[in-house]
Protein: Probable nicotinate-nucleotide adenylyltransferase
Amino acid sequence: MPLTEPFVFMGGTFDPVHNGHLRTALELQQWLNVSQVTLIPTGEPVHRLAPGCSAKHRLAMVELAVADAASLCVDAREVEAATPSYSALTLASLRQSLGPDRPICMVMGMDAYLGLPGWKDWDTFLSLCHIIAVARPGYTYPSADAMDDFTRRYRVESTEELWQRPCGAVMIHELTPLGISATQIRELVAQGRSPRYLLPDQVWEYIKQHRLYGYK
Ligand code: ATP
Ligand code: MG
Structure:
């Protein structure tokens, strides 16, 4: 283990948060042997279409989802920021609050990882954090794309190597594959079908109560 507890986080639109996110975060918490994994919902997403509901609702659903999970927590800095959400800004803000020596790990699904070259200032991320890319059904690595050289250059195979420094490495990791997406859940709700068991019951209740995603 490193001298200081690593900070492990997963950013996302969480529109809504679902069991694919939560199970990924929990398995990583156990595998990395850290006390918590933090979920950071985006405020104004810049890489995708406008979310199906407001940042306030998305944050509230993540809060409900982690309320009874001691090993998961939520950080509202992107939702509360006045500026649009950019990972580069979030990483700089985390580095500022956590200090220069603490390992920071940014967790992302393989779909997000393979799309990194489209993110603002992505080539600065490894100067601020490690990246852990987790397999996601439908997105395989290696693939013949722009991330190959990057991955080959920075990839490490063990967590010991990650903890030797505060930032700068990439890990590719496979967890229980769960083919759940928020898109699928929004579509089910809009069609009047139940998304139950794909997401926590409390989140489904919240969606119904606030009539999100076209729930009638
Ligand atoms: P949408 O369908 O709206 O894009 P999503 O299910 O992909 O939603 P996001 O909020 O976009 O959820 O994803 C946040 C992060 O969680 C991303 O890094 C994404 O790759 C990862 N992720 C989402 N679903 C899964 C899953 N089932 N397994 C592993 N990682 C996931
Ligand atoms: Mg997504």
Remarks:
- Residues 19-32 form the longest helix (14 residues).
- The chain has a mean pLDDT of 93.
- The chain has nine helices and six strands.
- The pocket of adenosine-5'-triphosphate (ligand 1) is lined by residues 10, 12-15, 20-21, 24, 108-109, 111-112, 134, 136, 178, 180-183 (CB under 6 Å).
